[in-house]
Amino acid sequence: MTAENEPALGRRNYEQFARRYAEAVPTKPHNAYYDRPAVLALLPELRGKRVLDAGCGPGIYAEELVNRGASVVAVDVTPEFVAMTRGRLGERATVLEADLEQPLDFARDAEFDVVVCPLVLDYIEDWQPTLGEFHRILKPGGVFAFSQGHPWNDWQLASARGLVSGTYFDTERYTMEWHGFGEPYPRITAFRRPLEAMINPVIDAGFQIERIVEPRPTEEFRAVDPERYERLMREPGFIGVRAVKL
Ligand SMILES: C[S@@+](CC[C@H](N)C(=O)[O-])C[C@H]1O[C@@H](n2cnc3c(N)ncnc32)[C@H](O)[C@@H]1O
User: b/e for 122-135, b at 16 or more Cβ within 10 A?
Assistant: First the structure.
């Protein structure tokens, strides 16, 4: 719950269509053939590592992390996703309902080797407390990897549709109907921000940035959606970052 005691923004977004999201993302090109290959490539060897999947959704990442030999804690703020991830993984992972905007009371200092947070931070306005918690729970030398909407793409999309009134350099909340998951169309509220507002909070939290990726779609993407493939080969849709705790 937020300070105003209403459900977190991420939950309000995803409870509108959690089941349809879960059915789509195993094979939806933007997830399966664009985001996941890029983010998984940012991760170190996972065998025997303790990994937090922060904002696990229906558990596709968590399952892959477990299959790679990690000991996984998966958390999400949307109860339907927590139930789905528990159903998917059973005893093979610890799955908890948790809001990443609140202290991560389930985790000890320096407990984790890796925190992975794909496509989640778009729904959090102030990253500092969340990144501070990720830093606290990681071991020194631990890896934090995340992805989210590319700042240039989010700006283009939101400004072209008149959804924001500021400049590229502002951090702004905007709401968009998503048409990629069938009807009724969910109305998704997120925050767009410039590149500096994605990178500097990571550095300020005590991380060293190791790698930035502006992913390219894979050949599988081309096979199922050639038009969007061509577009994503010309201009970015998402951005991925790997940082290490100093
Ligand atoms: C686009 S989905 C990504 C799911 C998963 N990471 C993946 O890539 O398959 C965004 C997820 O972030 C979760 N989320 C959003 N805000 C959150 C918060 N404050 N705390 C925990 N989870 C949050 C949503 O419930 C949803 O599962």
Answer: bbbeebeebbbbbb
Instruction: List 116's β-bridge partners, or say none.
Output: 53, 145
Statement: 12-245 belongs to CATH 3.40.50.150: yes
Tokens standing for 23?
A: 């059915």
Nearest-CA residue for ligand 1 atom 17 is 10
Dist CA 207 CA 70 (whole Å): 22
The response to whether residue 21 sits with its C-beta less than 6 Å from ligand 1 reads: no
- Closest-CA residue to 148 (of 32, 237, 43): 237
Please tell me the predicted confidence (pLDDT) of residue 4.
59
In this structure, which amino acid lies at residue 181? Answer: F
Helix pair angle (79-89, 60-67), 10° resolution: 30
Q: Which of 30, 27, 8, 23 is nearest to 150 (CA)?
A: 30
Quick one: pLDDT band at residue 5, thresholds 50, 70, 90?
Answer: confident
20-72 pLDDT, tens digit per residue, is 999 999 999 999 999 999 999 999 999 999 999 999 999 999 999 999 999 99
| C-alpha 119 to ligand 1 mean position (Å) | 7
